[in-house]
Design goal:
The chain is an alpha+beta fold. Helix content is about 45%, strand content about 20%. α9 (about 215-230) runs antiparallel to α10 (about 235-255) and α15 (about 450-465) packs parallel to α16 (about 480-495). Belongs to the UvrC family.
């Protein structure tokens, strides 16, 4: 950690909130919070330092994570800046150097790989480079999301255009072709097997390929193939034909046929205490690939706040500053969006926009990013390593004798008491065991009585267990508070089940993720788990999955019922009259709006029948 005396224009106070806040400036700047050992806890920026820092010391409204941070503060240091933009840039530099535990931190700080076209006058090479520099001239293509993406592109370029990839020293000292020439991956410019003019034409086409101009290249190659054929240079024409076929194959493999432009497309997904952020890099209208991040964060934040912190570190916090595109596409409004855009514009020396409301191809890129974020997060949650680590944490949290190998969770879903459905989801040591999921249609209870619904589903499920049918769980979760848990305990007592732990998962007072309360049915002990606990993340995952599955089942049951026409069951309205009504009005919604007199105008509908139809539609 740098010495505090090295910080520019800084003031240091021993922590005393009242006197500290009283003399704090209202100018923009950066604040750093330290613990008793003078280790940095958190770095933040502010348009108004006094207002921002004061918000940490409110009497109410602070999340538990923020309260935990405030409890550790021993001193605060501020650096006044000339503008918000300066504060943003300084904040990111400090986060990078200090790595505070309460800031969002990116684990991957590598610079992106590029393809580099050297500045050789006659025979330039195409090579892999990590990080972009200004030395040596040449042309840079990228950035690509991974080294694999670069190698794949170079492989395609060598197959189609046979551009050399050797370094300058190797190139200058060759007196015969190397193996790349023998396997048809290079035209051997080192020994003059190709003229500078022809080689430059291959370079031109390779450059167009990297810029996403495949159709133009194919058109040029087709013209060249025809000219070679007319000149009876059939071997040369065959080479052009092979290049065209390769390019068409590559073009078919590309999933995005775009309108052009450069953009970074960023999406976020959250579940079970984990955040996944996906970056899709688009250059020249071509999607070069994706990169995923799982940032560590300790303060409860919205998606807009998380993206704001991520963007700041992503573009300003690395060892090598990333290329800033003209457009940064995001799925939600980002906190401090205007300020970030201003800072990015200043850093790039041209306008950079952060946009969410986009159409056409950009909208499809954003949807692709959001799909990738959700899928990557699901894959991460389902990974054996993640599940096993969480299972161990859950065993320790609940003081279980053995690591649970089968867990079941129950939830109830209905619409105003109708079409009640109960879900049972199952997790094992590999995560969700979807083949064992079950849905139960709840019948014969008072609408909206969740206790009766829970009693029915648990009785139906565990009566089979006591009869020796089905698999016995090691742990059962009930999505609900003490009321639902008491019902579960009564059912277990009635069925003589005493060796399966029962845990209730209540949402807590704030009803926010991370604030859940757990209730042990054996001891009635109510306790909370730290929001960053792997055990809580597993419980949240199971609970959320049971909730999702219950809602899905309820909607399927409700929609099945709704597919039956609301005109069915009305005495005197058969298929023919239903058809005439819908044909006349165009749909059930318009029939509902119609008066009795209007309905009576329909062929086959008398005044008395129209009154009956009106009454039936408006009594629902």
């Amino acid at each position: 950690m740098p010495k505090r005396s090295d910080q520019p224009e800084s003031d240091i106070w021993k922590f005393d909130s009242k006197s500290f806040l009283k003399q704090l400036t209202e100018r923009p700047g950066v604040y750093r919070m330290y613990d008793e050992a003078s280790e940095v806890l958190y770095v933040g920026k502010a348009r108004n330092l006094k207002n921002r820092v004061s918000s940490y010391f409110r009497q109410t409204g602070l999340s538990p994570k923020t309260q935990a941070l405030v409890a550790k503060i021993h001193s605060i240091e501020v650096t006044i800046t000339g503008s918000e933009t300066e504060a943003l840039l300084l904040e990111q530099n400090l986060i990078k150097s200090l790595r505070p535990p309460y800031n969002i931190l990116l684990r991957d700080d590598k610079s992106y790989p590029y393809i580099y076209l050297s500045s050789h006058s006659d025979y330039p090479s195409l090579t892999f480079r990590r990080g972009r520099t200004k030395k040596g001239g040449g042309t840079w293509f990228g950035p690509f999301p991974s080294s694999g993406a670069v190698k794949e592109s170079l492989n395609v370029l060598q197959k189609i255009f046979r551009i050399r990839s050797c370094n300058e020293s190797y190139f200058r000292n060759r007196n015969r072709p190397c193996l790349q020439y023998q396997i048809n991956r290079c035209t051997a410019p080192c020994v003059g097997y190709i003229s500078p003019e022809d080689y430059q034409e291959d370079i031109r086409h390779a450059t167009m390929f990297l810029e996403g101009k495949n159709p133009v290249i194919i058109h040029d190659l087709m013209n060249a193939m025809e000219e070679a054929s007319q000149a009876l240079e059939f071997e040369k024409a065959a080479a052009y034909r092979d290049q065209i076929n390769h390019l068409r194959h590559v073009q078919e493999q590309q999933s995005v046929d775009s309108e052009g432009g450069d953009a970074d497309v960023i999406a976020i997904a959250q579940d079970a205490g984990i955040v996944c952020i996906i970056v899709i890099i688009v250059r020249g209208g071509r999607v070069l690939g994706t990169k995923d991040y799982f940032p560590r964060f300790s303060i409860e934040q919205t998606e807009g706040e998380l993206l704001s912190a991520f963007l700041g570190q992503y573009y300003f916090g690395g060892n090598t500053r990333r290329e800033i595109p003209r457009d940064i596409l995001v799925p939600v409004d980002v906190d401090g969006q205007a300020l970030l855009a201003e800072a990015l514009t200043e850093a790039a020396n041209r306008e950079t926009r952060i946009r969410g409301n986009v159409r056409g191809e950009r909208r499809r890129w954003l949807e692709l990013a959001m799909t990738n974020a959700r899928q990557t997060l699901l894959t991460h949650l389902a990974s054996k390593e993640t599940v096993y680590r969480r299972l161990l944490a859950l065993r320790d949290l609940l003081d279980l004798a053995e690591t649970p190998s089968r867990m079941e969770c129950f939830d109830i879903s209905h619409s105003h008491g109708e079409n009640t459905v109960a879900s049972c989801v199952v997790f094992d040591e590999n995560g969700p065991l979807k083949s064992d999921y079950r849905l139960y249609n709840i019948e014969g209870i008072t609408g909206g009585d969740d206790y009766a619904a829970m009693r029915q589903v648990l009785t139906r499920r565990y009566r089979r267990i006591t009869a020796g049918e089905g698999k016995r769980p090691d742990l059962v979760f009930i999505d609900g508070g003490k009321g639902q848990l008491n019902i579960a305990r009564e059912v277990f007592d009635e069925l003589g089940i005493s060796d399966i732990p029962l845990i209730g998962v209540a949402k807590g007072v704030t009803r926010r993720a991370g604030m859940e309360q757990l209730i042990d049915a054996m001891t009635d002990n109510v306790f909370r788990v730290p929001a960053d606990s792997p055990a809580l993340h597993l419980i949240q995952h199971i609970r959320d999955e049971s909730h999702r599955f219950a809602i899905t089942g309820h909607r399927a049951r409700r929609d099945k019922k709704r597919r039956q026409s609301t005109l069915e069951g009305i005495e005197g309205v058969g298929p023919k009259r239903r058809r005439e009504l819908i044909r006349y009005f165009g749909g059930i919604q318009e029939i509902r709006k119609a008066s009795v007199d209007e309905m009576a105008k329909v062929q086959g509908i008398s005044k008395s029948l129209a009154e009956a139809i009106y009454a039936a539609l408006h009594d629902e």
